[in-house]
């Protein structure tokens, strides 16, 4: 549901982009727009039962769980259990588990909605007492999901920088996940998220990000975030009410596709035929699992990186998900849609009224006297059914390409430049980690990293008190360029007021 709310936010926000100015100058020329993974069309299924519609995620194309979704469940159990409790959940000890604790949920109502959110953790010291737990795969893993055996060599070993840094992970998260995380914390009335960074083999660090901090990055402040959240829920309620009035007591698929800063959004409505869709889903799983061509040779959720611009032949490596047009679609790549009932298309048009002035520009509430209203009109398309069916089929086919990923045997020369760089870094780190004990590598291609320059410890009384009982760094003490050395195994660093605890422990999984 949060993906749909994100599209509605894109429609009402006037093209407002995340504010990543808090990062270092190394990201000054990097794009700050939301990633393609946030902007690809979102579909939900409305399931009718006894006068109530349940909203489920549409899994028509996302038929295979990724390593991140599978591992994420295990890591959440690991981080919320004692070592003794977690031992029971291992495969060899599974017979010892008698009663698995039930999940805990937070329930809320808003208009016609009854909202449910899973609660992961709680702490009475927090303003809202609870927070969400997120496991975040590193950049190399996210960009090359099917090749995680190699990508797990990618290390996070510095605070700042475009690659192999916590700053890069924060930058990507702000553009690709903050909006969903923010909506989830609001639905569950949670105070924030606790992020665990990993590469599927090691945990690199932990970071607590409050809802207020996400509000400042996304909206400018908390007041604007509250208004935006209420506005998108009201919009969604009105749109779904229109759909269910058109097709009462039926199971319906609704697809949303926003158009950036224009303030417009397309909504497509299709009746669900479960029997035929089950056959189509099986065929898609058997034939559409991998695509190894250059055009679709990497995860299309990611945005191009300016690092690619300096590489040969980078200009023609455009992203398939962004550039795919109707002319590019092979008629043989047809996709199932239910045409027993006509496909319905609506267009949502919006504009804002800010302090009695109509505008299509981004809005930020600066004082308690500011007023922001969202005006909208939902118009039904009058095109003939055949044209609408073809347009919807093309949309669904484009939507399916977002879930196609490069196979592990895709040659490096067919990948995008950034993915090639990440694979090269991963292989290098794996080679370094395979060295015999006592050996180390001196990287002469860059100057050494010193603790006083790389950590930038914020000297507040609270941090200094915690720091005194932890690891210390003195000026001129060299951090070796090898994250597996004993020097880094017990290294703990504080990243400003964000409190990232970066722990490099090669024995994490056995401890």
TrEMBL record:
What residue spans carry the region label Disordered?
288-324
A Pfam family recorded for this sequence: Pet127
Question: InterPro entries, per this entry?
Answer: Pet127
Q: Which domain of life is it from?
A: Eukaryota
Record-level GO cellular component terms: mitochondrial envelope
Name one process (GO BP) from the record: mitochondrial RNA 5'-end processing
Q: What is this protein called?
A: Pet127-domain-containing protein
